[in-house]
Design brief:
- The complex is a heterodimer of chains A (347) and B (320).
- Chain A has 347 residues and is an alpha/beta fold.
- Chain A has one domain: Thiamin diphosphate (ThDP)-binding fold, Pyr/PP domains (Rossmann fold), CATH 3.40.50.
- Chain A is 40% helix and 9% strand.
- In chain A, strand 4 and strand 5 form a beta hairpin.
- In chain A, helix 1 crosses helix 11, helix 2 packs parallel to helix 8 and helix 4 crosses helix 11.
- Chain A is globular and about 50 Å long.
- With 320 residues, chain B is α/β, with parallel strands linked by helices.
- In chain B, the strands form three sheets. A seven-stranded mixed beta sheet of chain B has the order 3-2-4-5-7-6-12, with helices on both faces. In chain B, strands 9-11-10-13-14 form a five-stranded mixed beta sheet, sandwiched between helices. Chain B has a two-stranded antiparallel ribbon with strand order 1-8.
- The chains are: A alpha/beta (347), B alpha/beta (320).
- Chains A and B meet through helix 5 and helix 6 of A and helix 3 and helix 4 of B.
């Protein structure tokens, strides 16, 4: 079955181009000393966040990590606010309270990450638990990396989600290195194999093929909505830049980088779309132009007011849950937000 | 008003809030069929079902982490740590995820973590701890510690209704020992201090089980001793503390927790900074020395502040 329309496939390419263009621009700004702190990007991994987020419905909830800028773009966060976020401006998504990709626009149905990398797996599991408890046909998704699989929260979330058969999708972004630590020093048994012992399937896909990632997550979401529980989707990819911009990657064999450079996820989708008659050059130019303008706007935005620094540790009034996000896949168009009958709540 | 034990009052609060608000649910290790290790959740699974009284895997990080997830999609989780000591395993999720979320993201995280805390019954180093100061030091987390059944109920209800992560310390040694009148229905107790006994010569500041120790210790003293029950450590009721000190000019602060950087240290700093001119003697503290809470009764009694230690400290201060 053909799940993606031509417009969907262009949208996937556009989101990946946008992610790369924003990160490329932000990296330049970082090197110019205009981005405070450190700088992290997902260069080469764009297909993982874009493909997975594209499969998620408006009422689903997402927990992306620091190489998953594409998820925020798919969910509708304005590039100006993202660039202002890197720059620590008042108009950044967190208003300067946190930096780089440490953000989540509550209005996009996305929860911002913390630096303790598998923690958000537990958070997504709790979202899924609430959906099941209320009998809602909704799914939670959490990305995590190969390094995160060594920590206890990975195990606690996988086990819990398996025991309770929760509607959650775990996307393992296997980018070969956790900072400098290669897979061989991280685990003796691949995480995708471990899914089975938690009571649910693990599938491995080419993480540099945005359509393959979309399809795996779409199927995992369907499974979750049908009440069949979680899925672990391993997206095999490569971190093409250092852990952060200051990292020279001396520990990565150059031939490995060269091999992966030939598998760039954006070039791959461009070739597909060019074959479909899409003017890829025009699309790229349009995205670059939008990002250049967004960067100018973000650079002109004011810094936060120091008088606000000691405010807002606590919430006041009624707690507002995360809102619904943009879900551009044509599979959701014209459909009710809830595409499935709600599963029976747990007795 | 019915008389209830401290434990029954906590159960009553949870039951009333679960009846009143379908977003409220309870989870933790053995909270369902068993009714919790201390029976606080006894009978809840029969009334509300397994969907709202969730027996979780033995996984404290995930208990707190999933509570965060449920909270940000509109639920009001009330988590039980089987013993307060075990919250160390969920510390990261509380401090880094729950506590920092509103400041960073503007997203409220309304959840409660119940901590059966404190010693006095040979629980040993892993079942007797008073870890409240850890959370006082972590931004974005409220910390409550009731001492009476009426406050235990009203403060748990206030915690459940609060839009923030709240750590609720319920003292295990008060569970069945302390009984009192508890109003029916639902009511929220303000997160402020309470004058447990009025006095004019000396203020003893305490919370949790130490309120009772302070009342016992000062009952027969030949002086008018005010006992201030903090009830809430975050927010800390500075006005009530300063008002009492202004009245008595002498202050003793009692912590069951280990002495260094305990809640009482913060109270002492507050008084030193803002009530120096009103003092007529040094700020004195009685707390547990900085060792794990030992098992054997004579050792435990040598560590946790006793009525006698508190009384001696009061006498010294009154004589100053």
């Amino acid at each position: 079955m053909e799940w993606l329309s031509r417009a969907d496939r262009v949208e996937l390419l556009r989101a990946m181009l946008m992610m790369r263009a924003i990160e490329a621009r932000a990296l330049v700004l970082y090197r110019q000393g205009r981005v405070p702190g450190s700088f992290y990007d997902g260069f080469g991994q764009e297909a993982v966040s874009v493909g997975a987020a594209f499969a998620m419905g408006p009422r689903d909830r997402l927990c992306p990590l620091h190489r998953d800028l594409g998820a925020h773009l798919v969910r509708g966060v304005d590039p100006v606010r993202i660039l202002a976020q890197y720059l620590g401006r008042a108009s950044g998504v967190t208003g300067g309270r946190d930096g780089n990709v440490h953000f989540g626009d509550p209005a996009s149905g996305v929860m911002g990450m913390v630096s303790m990398l598998p923690d958000m797996m537990c958070v997504a599991t709790g979202m899924a638990m609430a959906f099941k408890l209320r009998g809602e046909a909704r799914v939670a998704l959490s990305w995590f990396g190969d390094g995160a699989t060594s920590r206890g929260d990975f195990h606690e979330a996988m086990n819990w989600a398996g025991v309770q058969r929760l509607p959650v999708v775990f996307v393992l972004e296997n980018n070969q290195f956790a900072y400098s630590t290669p897979l061989a020093k991280q685990f003796a048994v691949g995480p995708v194999e471990r899914a089975r012992v938690y009571g649910f399937p693990g599938v491995s896909v080419d993480g540099n093929d945005v359509e393959a990632v979309f399809e795996a997550v779409r199927a995992a979401r369907e499974r979750a909505l049908a009440g069949e529980g979680p899925t672990l989707v391993e997206a095999v990819t490569m971190r093409m830049h250092g852990h952060a911009a200051h990292d020279d990657m001396r520990y990565v064999p150059p031939e490995l980088l060269a091999a992966w450079a030939g598998r760039d996820p954006i070039e791959r989708q461009e070739r597909r779309m060019a074959a479909q008659g899409v003017d890829v050059e025009a699309l790229r130019a349009e995205v670059d132009e939008e990002v250049a303008a967004a960067a100018e706007e973000a650079l002109a935005a004011p810094m936060p007011d120091p008088a606000d620094a000691a405010r807002d540790a606590f919430a006041h009034g009624e707690a507002e849950p995360l809102g619904d996000g943009r879900a551009p896949w044509s599979g959701f168009a014209g459909e009710p937000a809830v595409a499935h009958p709600a599963p029976e709540p747990t007795a | 008003m019915p008389a209830m034990t401290y434990l029954e009052a906590i159960s009553d609060a949870l039951r009333e809030e679960m009846r009143a608000d379908e977003r409220v649910f309870a989870m933790g290790e053995d909270v369902g069929a068993l009714g919790g290790a201390f029976k606080v959740t006894d009978g809840l699974v029969e009334e509300f079902g397994e969907a709202r009284v969730i027996d979780t895997p033995l996984a404290e990080a995930a208990i707190v982490g999933t509570a965060v997830g449920a909270a940000v999609v509109g639920m009001r989780p009330v988590c039980e740590m089987q013993f307060a000591d075990f919250v160390a395993c969920g510390f990261d999720q509380l401090v880094n995820v729950a506590g920092k979320t509103h400041y960073r993201l503007g997203v409220a995280v309304p959840l409660v973590v119940r901590l059966p805390s404190g010693g006095g019954f040979s629980g040993g180093p892993f079942h007797s701890q008073s870890p409240e100061a850890w959370f006082m030091h972590a931004p974005g987390i409220k910390v409550l510690a009731p001492s009476t059944p009426a406050d235990a109920k009203g403060l748990l209800i206030a915690a459940i209704r609060d839009p923030n992560p709240v750590v609720y310390l319920e003292h295990k040694h008060l569970y069945r020992r302390i009984k009192g009148e508890v109003p029916k229905g639902t009511y929220a107790t303000p997160m402020t201090a309470r004058v447990a006994r009025e006095g004019t010569d000396l203020t003893v500041i305490a919370y949790g089980a130490m309120v009772h120790a302070a009342l016992d210790a000062t009952e027969d003293l030949d002086a008018s001793v005010e006992v201030l029950d903090l009830r809430s450590l975050v927010p800390l009721d500075a006005d009530a503390i300063l008002a009492s000190v202004a009245k008595t000019s002498k202050v003793l602060i009692v912590d069951e927790a280990n002495e260094t950087c305990a809640a009482g240290a913060q109270v002492a700093a507050l008084i030193a900074e803002r009530a120096f001119e009103q003092l007529d003697g040094p700020i004195r503290r009685v707390a547990s020395p900085d060792v794990p809470i030992p098992f054997s009764p004579p050792l435990e009694q040598a560590v946790i502040p006793t009525v006698n230690r508190i009384r001696d400290a009061c006498r010294d201060l009154l004589d100053y």
